[in-house]
Amino acid sequence: MKFEPPKENINEAKEILVTVYESLKEKGYNPINQMIGYILSGDPTYITSHNNARSLIRKLERDELIEELLKYYLENEDKEK
């Protein structure tokens, strides 16, 4: 089976990840640890409600977030070599 997300969700996922990251950082959390906790568990309490971050991240499925992270990492890994 082949998984292909809708194209418009990819840019939205990136924007949401950046917004949530910044919101967590502003509130003094370790954004990476908090976002990993959310992605692994699905528990929205890992994400602050500051700047509506919790509502934003719940707009997308966790697999869409993982896909965006993996895509970004692999695309940028190639540029570093």
UniProtKB/TrEMBL annotation:
Q: What's the protein name?
A: UPF0297 protein FYJ27_03670
Pfam families, alphabetically? IreB
Similarity comment: family membership: Belongs to the UPF0297 family.
Q: Which organism is it from?
A: Anaerosalibacter bizertensis
Q: Which PANTHER family match?
A: UPF0297 PROTEIN YRZL
Mind giving the lineage of the organism this protein is from? Bacteria, Bacillati, Bacillota, Tissierellia, Tissierellales
What the entry lists under InterPro entries is as follows: IreB
| HAMAP family, sorted | UPF0297
